[in-house]
Amino acid sequence: MTLKSWKTRKVLTILFLTVFLPVAVFFANTETNLFSRAYLNLTGKKADLTVNLTTSLPFEPLWSSLAQGGEEKGGMLESIIPQVKNLRPRYIRIDHIYDYYDVVYRNTEGNLDFNWINLDKEIKDILATGAKPFLSLSYMPAAISTGNEVDIPAKWSDWELVIQKTIEHVSGVNELSIADVYYEVWNEPDLFGDYKVGKGKDYLKLYHYASYGAQKAQNVHDFKFGGPATTGLYKAWFDGLLGYVGRNYLRLDFYSWHKYSKNLKDFEIDLISISSWLEAYPKYSGIEFIISETGFNSENDPGYDTEFSAIQTLGLYALVSSYQEKLKIFTFEIKDGPGDKQKWGRWGLLTHEKFGEPIAKPRYKAIEFLNLMEGEGVPVYGHGTWVKAFSVKSDKTMKLLIVNYDPFDKHYENVPILFVGLPSSRFTLRRRDFLNETIEYPVESASDNWKTEILMEPNSASIVEIIPSQ
């Protein structure tokens, strides 16, 4: 190598290290994720929808489960009962039932005693919305804890008794007498308490004695019992818990976890993964899967105050509509906590009453929009990367909800739709755009199959309705 070529190579190396490499690193790590976006645009699949009206499927409104976080001690739902009732929830989840509602105390003899007044008020508000309670058995009562609210009890028999008495009170025939209540052992144990599986501060022990308490509950209505409500779906936790309950003959009616992601594919991967993992545990083949908190970001995010959160929610429920059997998904959360302004990027469907009458945010409107989809399920094929859809029919009327969700807010798509097995060749086609206008016009088809196309703007949703002519 000559001196000149060596100097040239040295200059190029320095130039690469000082200029090009930092630029490449910046773009590789930037939050806008430009390379991922470009790759997605090149490789994403467009939708080509087929709606088969000749058959029907069982259908449950998976969006009818709502969760309220521990924003305040008690009375969180009291100011918004009519607004929540309007959403027609079937279950409402709350946590902090022991540390926020002062349920457990020691009497003058030093024995455990229970005061249900504050918790009963919250449960009464849940019932007033038309929903049933889904109770996260959290956190550790001060009267039995070795430390704070996320520590283990001084005596495991005390924790067992707390669970037994809770179930006997809420589900007891001679107490609140509520059937089909869900009891979930803890809330995000991998975060709140730093619990592990099978070692150290062991969640399995927490679950073990809680299960004993549930088993001892007497004179109660049917109820569901499970956990672990981890921050995400983790195979080590799944295998650890199912293996343990199987070996120890413990009760497990459902397996729960939380999921926050802007990428809808992540939710689908979770459902596919857990279904695959369950095959190793045939004894528990009938358990229910529950995502007991969902959203697009587990932290505060301005998007929760905008239409973005609504479209992500609509896209999620369009995606999971085909997973009808033994699945619940809880939208988190119902009402914002009291921030320093009315809208502060909190997760709520509704704003806090601190700033006046609670305001319905776009995600609240998304649940209202979903509630228009009533009836029997109808198979829909041909989903794409961005466009998801599901369909229902009632009598002879059919509705198809289509969602074009793009986290980058860029993707337009002209969506082909083939309707197979129309009940009438003459009908009215109605298109209702989310938070926008409704248009309709008459159609006459040459056969009982009919094809059309609908242009979907980025982050938009529409309900297409076929109404047969009389």
Protein described:
GO terms for molecular function: hydrolase activity, hydrolyzing O-glycosyl compounds. This protein has 470 residues and is α/β, with parallel strands linked by helices. It has two domains: 108 residues, Immunoglobulin-like; 313 residues, Glycosidases (TIM Barrel, Alpha-Beta Barrel), CATH 3.20.20.80. It contains ten helices and 20 strands. Strands 2-3-6-7-8-9-10-11 form an eight-stranded parallel β-barrel, surrounded by six helices. Strands 12-14-15-20-17-18 form a six-stranded antiparallel β-sheet. The longest helix has 27 residues. 41% of the residues are buried.
Q: What's the overall average pLDDT, rounded?
A: 92
The first-to-last residue Cα distance is 89 Å
The CATH homologous superfamily of the largest domain: Glycosidases
The sequence of SSEs as H and E is HHEEHEEEHEHEHEHEHEHEHEEEEEEEEE
CATH class of the largest domain: Alpha Beta
Please give the number of β-strands.
20
Proportion of residues in helical segments: 25-40%
Category from helices, strands and their pairing: alpha/beta
pLDDT < 50 stretches: 1-39
Domain Glycosyl hydrolases family 39 N-terminal catalytic: 90-376
GO molecular function: hydrolase activity, hydrolyzing O-glycosyl compounds
Keywords: Glycosidase, Hydrolase
Family: Belongs to the glycosyl hydrolase 39 family.
